[in-house]
Amino acid sequence: MRTAYSVETVRAAERELMARLPEGALMQRAAAGLAAVCAGLLRRRRGRVYGARVVLLVGPGDNGGDALYAGARLARRGAAVTAVPMDPERMHAGGLAALRAAGGRAAGTLPQRADLVVDGLLGIGGRGGLRPAAAALVERIPPGVPVVAVDLPSGVDADTGEVAGPAVTAEVTVTFGAYKPGLLIDPGASRAGALHLVDIGLELPEPEVEALQHADVAGLLPEPTASSDKYRRGVVGIVAGSAQYPGAAVLAVAGALRGGAGAVRYVGPAADSVLARHPETLIGPGRVQAWVIGPGLGEGRAGEVADLLAQDTAVLVDADGLRGLDPAVLRARTAPTLLTPHAGEAAALLGVSRESVEAGRLAAVRRLAERYGAAVLLKGSTTLVASAGGRPVRVNPTGTPWLATAGSGDVLSGLAGSLLAGGLSGADAGAVGAYLHGLAARRTGGPLLAQQVAEALPAAWRDATHP
Ligand SMILES: NC(=O)C1=CN([C@@H]2O[C@H](COP(=O)(O)OP(=O)(O)OC[C@H]3O[C@@H](n4cnc5c(N)ncnc54)[C@H](O)[C@@H]3O)[C@@H](O)[C@H]2O)[C@@H](O)CC1
Ligand SMILES: Nc1ncnc2c1ncn2[C@@H]1O[C@H](COP(=O)(O)OP(=O)(O)O)[C@@H](O)[C@H]1O
Ligand SMILES: [K+]
């Protein structure tokens, strides 16, 4: 599991540790880790550190201090290091002295030739969009030169991943003590490049955000045993499709057939299309361990949604099924419930604009889970899964923008429903479903069709369980 912590939590852990260590010890740990990553990158790119031109962008706080001390270490190894301050009056004094003592220099303007830029403008002390002096430096980073971000790319909000205006795009981010949510959630995540965590010895409580890895997914996926039969493995029922959208039913069933359930049952008007593509499907009402309702349902089918929600069976509600949901009805349920909106559907459920959901995805998914008393999977660039009751929000690390194609959400709802039928909780079914869905899409590559994502699911399952 990859875990991430808010700025407030990191600061508290830092204070506690600093009280027990000599002054400046944490910054030296951070700078040593940062310098090692920079040196590794320079060696890979040009064979050696000696003679490399390194530019440090230096902000007014400790993030700049880290960059200056790391720059001093690189200068001692023969790099030509130039520090460019955001504000020449406010640079970490100890760091600047160390850099100068090691042979580095400060300059007023950004050199146009460099082998590496180190972004030490802002770390966890950054607030709001970059102010003009910082933005001007970011805009002058020479194109094609690799950037290593210190703690996080400047301009990315550490707690949310929000980016308001210009921001650094890094090849590598070297972060200290703990990942921050903004490094795992887009748009911040796509600015951070490869993540490198430097352990500075922090002791941390439960995380705010977590991302599953292969081993976590393997531990959650249901595996059949000698005593399994198709009913014990779980039956998932799919209520999807309409005369207008029969394809949604076919795709949801395609996902469900590859989600580990022993059988898939289809209920709805697209039975002929479903059977033509998936002869394995059972047709018509019957007993199931989990229902999926919503993909391609069209208008006027709220009664069917209400009927399923009234049953004491796990239910996943997607797409058209999400219209007009009553929070009181959902909160009263005791069986697992998973809602899988995209940003537009989430906005309608919260009564806010789509833009506000997209700008603050973490807050939106948390509010949805609280309000509806259910697990909620918010689709989009970095899919998020929250559960009612304040557990860490799960961030899916496997997505790809190629998934933004018609019908891929239908495959996901069938898949996650199948996992629910296999006995996973709402949040686990959502997070594991999104993980396999993203892996399958990455395996397929783009441009991709939703049905290809479904077809690649067994291979993605094997990748996660037998890496
Ligand atoms: N606290 C600790 O124990 C450690 C901190 N470390 C480093 O210290 C950093 C945090 O340092 P600070 O708390 O000094 O904060 P930062 O260095 O992140 O930035 C704070 C400064 O930036 C200015 N600023 C804030 N938002 C801005 C914006 N949008 N545009 C322009 N300027 C802005 C503020 O006025 C303030 O002067 C971490 O990210 C990490 O790099 C590391 O050395 C490890 C140990
Ligand atoms: N920019 C993006 N990056 C990664 N994944 C995305 C992006 N946009 C959409 N997706 C994913 O694509 C799928 C689209 O689902 P959805 O919006 O329900 O479409 P549909 O209803 O056509 O199936 C979801 O899994 C979502 O997370
Ligand atoms: K930074």
Automatic annotation (TrEMBL):
Residue span(s) of domain YjeF N-terminal: 10-208
UniProt: (6S)-NADPHX binding residues: 62-66, 123-129, 151, 248, 296, 342, 410
Superkingdom: Bacteria
Enzyme Commission (EC) number: 4.2.1.136, 5.1.99.6
Requisite cofactors: K(+); Mg(2+)
InterPro entries: CARKD, Nnr, Ribokinase-like, YjeF_N_dom, YjeF_N_dom_sf
UniProt remark on cofactor binding: Binds 1 potassium ion per subunit.
Residue intervals of the YjeF C-terminal domain: 213-464
PROSITE patterns membership: YJEF_C_3 (PS51383), YJEF_N (PS51385)
Reactions catalysed according to its record: (6R)-NADHX = (6S)-NADHX; (6S)-NADHX + ADP = AMP + phosphate + NADH + H(+); (6S)-NADPHX + ADP = AMP + phosphate + NADPH + H(+); (6R)-NADPHX = (6S)-NADPHX
Keywords of this entry: ATP-binding, Isomerase, Lyase, Metal-binding, Multifunctional enzyme, NAD, NADP, Nucleotide-binding, Potassium
UniProt-annotated binding residues for K(+): 63, 119, 154
Binding site for AMP: 379-383, 409
Subunit structure: Homotetramer.
Family: Belongs to the NnrE/AIBP family. Belongs to the NnrD/CARKD family.
NCBIfam families, sorted: yjeF_cterm, yjeF_nterm
Role, per record: Catalyzes the epimerization of the S- and R-forms of NAD(P)HX, a damaged form of NAD(P)H that is a result of enzymatic or heat-dependent hydration. This is a prerequisite for the S-specific NAD(P)H-hydrate dehydratase to allow the repair of both epimers of NAD(P)HX.
Record-given protein name: Bifunctional NAD(P)H-hydrate repair enzyme
Species for this entry: Streptomyces amritsarensis
Organism taxonomic ancestry: Bacteria, Bacillati, Actinomycetota, Actinomycetes, Kitasatosporales
Gene name of the encoded protein: nnrD
